[in-house]
TrEMBL record:
This is ABC transporter ATP-binding protein. It holds the Pfam family ABC_tran. Keywords: Amino-acid transport, ATP-binding, Nucleotide-binding, Transport. PROSITE patterns: ABC_TRANSPORTER_1, ABC_TRANSPORTER_2. Residues 6-239 form the ABC transporter domain. It comes from the Bacteria. It comes from Conexibacter stalactiti. InterPro entries: AAA+_ATPase, ABC_transporter-like_ATP-bd, ABC_transporter-like_CS, BCAA_Transport_ATP-bd_LivF, P-loop_NTPase. One of its GO terms (molecular function) is ATP binding. The lineage of its organism: Bacteria, Bacillati, Actinomycetota, Thermoleophilia, Solirubrobacterales. Belongs to the ABC transporter superfamily.
Amino acid sequence: MSDDALVIEGLAAGYGELTVLRDVSLTLRPGELTLVGGPNGAGKSTLLRALLGAIPASAGSALLGGEDLLALDMRARLARGLSIVPEGRGLFPSLTVRDNLRVALRAGRAGRRDAQERVDAVVAALPIVGERMDDRVGSLSGGQQQMVAVGRALLMRPRVLLLDEPSIGLAPIVWRHVLKLCRELADEGRIVLLVEQRVLEALDTSDRCAVLQQGRIVHSAAVGDRRAVEQLLESYFASGSAAA
Ligand SMILES: Nc1ncnc2c1ncn2[C@@H]1O[C@H](COP(=O)(O)OP(=O)(O)OP(=O)(O)O)[C@@H](O)[C@H]1O
């Protein structure tokens, strides 16, 4: 197994007395796009929050290059290369695209020259971000806002990119565009973890897929293993998860 993988074992996490995730184990590899599907309330966002350090884990480990992320605070995890595109995007709608990126760069403590290089790289990857740089985020379409949210995450040059239901509010054609972008980001050697309810459209773009139900991984399969994927989809639909 690659030393650069993110190896999650026996992860448990929740909110106060409420345990949401139980015994979650997943291996996320560089160059791979891993899709975790599951119904509303299954714990998908909770998984990302626990990996990022926004909530504490009560058990388990998450080794990145052999180092346990769960022992680090959120700032240290960000410094190790974790970055998130949060559910709802988390942008400031009344600020311009440029100012949204500036806020992120300041939070990431990028120096001025370094900051410009990072912005240039984002614009090269996502030309729409450059085209709308001086527009207020609130005036952009949902798809364009999603590109800004992805661009903001890319500013941190992530080694591990976490995306929380980026399909929400997107037309199918825009969603497919976001998926293609996720594929490219994985192909560049990143670890990409996408949590989604709309798993069917995302499946063929992914390398691995897992189903989360009531805080547990109930199935996982390499997407190339069609038989395993069929079983996984059967369990997914039997659980009453959203279809598309
Ligand atoms: N801040 C919180 N405080 C307490 N409970 C929470 C909090 N956030 C989520 N939960 C609970 O944790 C469980 C899992 O929620 P989570 O948001 O992780 O699910 P999800 O799979 O991402 O669902 P969705 O698709 O609806 O976002 C739910 O029962 C939810 O009510």
